[in-house]
Amino acid sequence: MTLDITTFEALLPFIAVGFAAQIVDGALGMAFGVISNTLLLSLGVAPAAASAGVHTVETFTTAVSGISHAIHKNVNWKLFFRIMIPGVIGGVLGAYVLSNIDASVAKPFILAYLAAIGLYLLWRSTHYPPAARSPKIVEPLGLVGGFLDAAGGGGWGPVVTSNLLVQGSDPRTTIGTVNTSEFFLTATISATFITQLGWEAFTMATVGLLIGGIVAAPFGALLAKRVEAKLLMLLVGCVLTATSLYGLYRALA
Q1: pLDDT tens digits for 42-56?
Q2: pTM of the model
């Protein structure tokens, strides 16, 4: 069996994007879906198919990433179950809505909100360390985060990670917990998309994203463990603000 060089070269950009997106996602608890989904949409992939493809890839990358975070003791298991179960429920609802209804009307408002949260996290990182607190609003956050992740092709990390940090949750364990719980969310969303759209929703581009993402997954967890909390919060604020403002620009253009 010979390797088709032309096909492999066509996959290289997607492998690079998958690798970079997963490094950011594993270390900061967000951005794989946003970065990958933006790329696929820019190449003309339909929104539902792009979201389905990205979530299929994330099923594998979040499994590897979640195991890595657990090994490095980055997971708060009590918080894990509080966000994972409502997140899965929200994900099923969001995947169904995106497969049958145009949910793009609300996207600019969601992105504006996330950009504001990103700016607040940037400010808060310069006044770190605040008093650590157990987050109070968790289950509704998981439900909303799961719904928006499926309906918007990405958003679990930006919505859940950022809002838990705003409530005073520890950056390292928040990132690890959100990243680990995402495996169950993406697996459920992918299965829902298959029932609604069939296997034709997935493109060859997802293969490149999958290769790059799996290779990068263990490194993100290691970075989350090694980087100090103040810098983690600063980086989360930067990534969230930049991706949200870019998405808002595209949505309004």
Answers
A1: 666 666 667 677 777
A2: 0.69
